[in-house]
Specification:
With 446 residues, the chain is mainly α. The chain has 18 helices and 2 strands.
């Protein structure tokens, strides 16, 4: 039982527990037993912080079902090992070497020192942002549900938790389309998505920098390479996404065309944030142009940053691959990023993530095209990438997929959440050291 197998099996156990909870009659609005496939799909989507659903969550599930769903999202966003280790710390247990290595791999952090403090910081940060989101969303929901204050509070809590954990479950049939012109809703949800997906290490460094500025601490803050790469790549993708969505959709009367210019920009901004990777939407995705859908697919595939609650190949992986391409074009033998040399092991990992991710998407797209031939290729590809990157957006409606197609989507969501490299490590086992060196030889490439 290796560490990677422990993490992968832990997610499976959590999914199965969530499936049983969501099958119970108390979880269903009608008081009947839920379908096993529907419960499995929803539980997997929640644990993998995706947001895809084959039912209308707000109408299909009772309060208890919605509560179970939110708790699964919260645990899934923190990560199975993080949630388990925090529970051990609360019980007064000390972390052993095995638990530390598991948390290290789960959070994708370097080194084993200070993990207990890091976990406490993660929990505190999560609570701070989610409570802030609840307070801001109350500004929207209290006037809307003025006769039902408890419902307004629940709506705020549910959407805040889902937004920060980059899951796209909403309690409205149209998701957030009715709030397309509401700035409080747009910027609160998009802010929670960004802070949840940027990574806890980046948030900690940002906090230290702000603290030094406020306290006028003379000590200079030296940002890590991870911070600089994650922040710069995220900003570049947000700017590109906003401009690209506006350019492709501003004449489409079914999406941005019917809005005023300020609301068009705000909606384009929101749509550039949500593929990174939370499935909330303020425009009808099914009515977007083909160009808009392809832009969304690209942003979904890239995803969020390491150590956050989002999926995808991650912004840092994209940056390493771009730096590799730049080095090849310039005829250099080393790869540089932000005036730092990138280790060869990191380059190999980035290439492995890209190849494994593309292979998963292609394989799943082919299989679903066989099980659901009535769907268009762009719709299938969109759904597969959304599932793999744990986004939750859909261009056709997940309920329109066959049972076989839905089960394939379940598998893709699981692979995307645990990570393709971690899953392969769990299947193949830890690599064995080799003391054999092989002769080097060139071959034609490109």
């Amino acid at each position: 039982m290796t560490v990677s197998r422990t993490i992968c099996l832990g997610f499976i156990a959590l999914i199965l527990a969530g499936t049983l909870l969501l099958m119970l009659p108390i979880s269903i609005a009608t008081g009947e037993w839920n379908s096993p496939v529907t419960a499995l799909f929803t539980a997997t989507s929640a644990v993998c912080v995706t947001g895809l659903s084959v039912v209308d969550v707000g109408k299909f599930y009772s309060f208890w079902g919605q509560l179970f769903l939110m708790l699964l999202v919260q645990i899934g966003g923190l990560g199975y090992m993080t949630a388990t280790t925090v529970l051990l710390l609360l019980l007064g247990k000390r972390l052993g070497l095995r638990e530390k290595i598991a948390v290290q791999q789960s959070l994708d952090v370097a080194g084993l020192s200070g993990l207990a403090g890091l976990l406490r910081s993660i929990i505190a940060t999560t609570l701070l942002f989610e409570l802030t989101g609840v307070i801001l969303l109350m500004i929207v929901f209290v006037p809307q549900f003025q006769d039902q204050p408890l419902l307004a509070l629940w709506q705020s809590i549910f959407h805040s938790v889902n937004a920060f954990n980059n899951a796209g479950f909403g309690l409205f049939s149209d998701n957030l389309v009715q709030y397309v012109t509401n700035p409080v809703m747009n910027f609160t949800i998009s802010g929670l998505i960004l802070f949840g997906g940027i990574g806890y290490q980046v948030l900690m460094e940002l906090y230290q920098w702000l603290r030094n500025r406020v306290l006028r601490n003379p000590s200079r803050s030296n940002f890590s390479l991870n911070f600089r790469v994650a922040m710069s790549t995220t900003i570049a993708l947000l700017v590109f996404g906003t401009i690209a969505f506006y350019a492709t959709e501003f004449r489409n009367p079914n999406t941005l065309g019917a809005l005023s210019f300020p609301n068009q920009v705000m909606a384009a901004w929101f749509q550039s944030v949500t593929p990174r990777t939370a499935g909330f939407n303020t425009i009808d995705i099914t009515k977007m142009t083909t160009a808009g859908l392809f832009i969304t697919i690209a942003l979904m595939f890239i995803g969020a940053s390491p150590g956050g609650t989002g999926g995808g190949i991650k912004t840092t992986t994209l940056r390493v691959l771009l730096d590799c391409t730049k080095a090849v074009l310039q005829g250099k033998e080393v790869v540089l990023g932000s005036q730092r040399q990138i280790p060869v092991a990191l380059i190999l990992k980035a290439v492995g993530v890209l190849v494994g991710s593309i292979s998963t998407v292609i394989g799943a797209t082919i299989l679903i095209a066989l099980t659901d031939p009535q769907l268009d290729f762009i719709q299938i590809l969109f759904e597969v990438v959304s599932a793999f990157a744990t986004v939750g957006l859909t261009a056709v409606g997940t309920a329109n997929f066959s049972i076989s197609g839905q089960l394939l989507i379940v598998a893709v969501m699981y692979i995307g959440r645990v990570g393709i490299l971690l899953l392969m490590s769990a299947i193949l086992g830890d690599p064995k050291p080799s003391f054999v060196n092989y002769p080097e030889e060139n071959l034609l490439v490109g």
